Amino acid sequence: MCVAALVFQNTARRWSVISNTNAYKEDEPRVNSEIRASEVLLIDDQGNKLGVVPTKEALRLSEERELDLVEVAPQATPPVCRILDYGKYRFQQQKRDKDARKKQKNQTVKEMKMRPKIDQHDYDFKVRAIKGFLEDGHRVKVSIFFRGREMAFLDRGREVLNRVMSDISPLGKVETEPRMEGAYMRMMVSPGSVMGAPAPAKQPEKPKQAGREGGAEKA
Fold first, then answer.
1. What residues contact residue 68 under an 8 Å CB cut-off, 6+ apart?
2. pLDDT higher than threshold 80 for residue 12
3. Model confidence pLDDT, tens digit, residues 20-60
4. Which of 180, 196, 177 is nearest to 188 (CA)?
5. CATH fold of the domain at 21-93
6. Quick check: 180 and 163 in contact, CB under 8 A?
């Protein structure tokens, strides 16, 4: 009886701590006595589905195993509950959230500006910088600036962006297609594999199959 009483006291103390430190919030699961449903679909601590059982029975089973009953799918009918160590579960969840916030905070938007008639040396330097930004996990806004009469030759800016799309593969993917914003043609690139967008840049090379080798020289 003494051992049983001690187990009960430890369990009650743990439940009390969870209840006090985790007053129910809409974005947090209900735990133990906070669960309102009269019956639940129960999954035990080994991942076994025990079927639909009365909530009181689920609480008894979780207490026997010195664990917690956690409502993991409140929208289901009946709600789905799991037997687990909620303290450990919450710690792991907080760690994942913290890592996600840290990653999001470290990711910034870099901008790289170019001209429609950019020379090869300057182009190579800026493409290397874009690759470096992508490798560090940053998004990059690539901007082509048109001055005066250059606005009549927007295709030249698009050609430069197509080259960038091709040269940064597979470090980046096009998040926002090229579009005009005032005197700038801009596209947004994010870390990842290039998907679909480089196709316009590769089209001029297709005539090689018909024996036209001049396309490669023009590139």
1. 14, 15, 18, 31, 32, 62, 83, 84, 85, 86, 87
2. no
3. 444 445 568 899 999 999 999 999 999 899 999 999 999 99
4. 177
5. Ubiquitin-like (UB roll) (3.10.20)
6. no
Question: 185 in helix, strand or coil?
Answer: strand
The helix or strand, by DSSP H or E, that contains position 80, with its residue range, turns out to be: strand 80-84
Of the two residues 103 and 160, the one the predictor is more confident about is 160
Fold of the CATH domain 106-201:
Translation Initiation Factor IF3 (3.30.110)
Q: What is the DSSP letter of 79?
A: P
Ordered by start, the domain boundaries in the chain are 21-93, 106-201
Instruction: Retrieve residue 92's tokens.
Output: 């792991």
Closest Cα partner for 30 from 40, 22, 20, 21?
A: 22
Average pLDDT over residues 2-26: 50
Contact in structure between 116 and 86 (CB atoms under 8 Å) = no
Interaxial angle between packed helices 154-167 and 120-135, expressed in degrees from 0 to 180 and rounded to the nearest 10: 50
Count CB-CB contacts under 10 A for residue 59: 20
Residue 219, token pair as written in the block = 């590139």
User: Nearest 10 degrees: CA dihedral of 74, 76, 80, 86?
Assistant: -20
| Length of the chain in terms of residues written | 219
**pLDDT tens digits, 135-159:** 888 999 999 999 988 999 899 999 9
List phi, psi (to 5°) of 37. -65, 150
On whether the CB atoms of residues 113 and 143 are closer than 8 A, the answer is yes
Q: Side chain identity at 121, as an amino acid letter?
A: H
Helical (H) or strand (E) element with 41 = strand 39-43
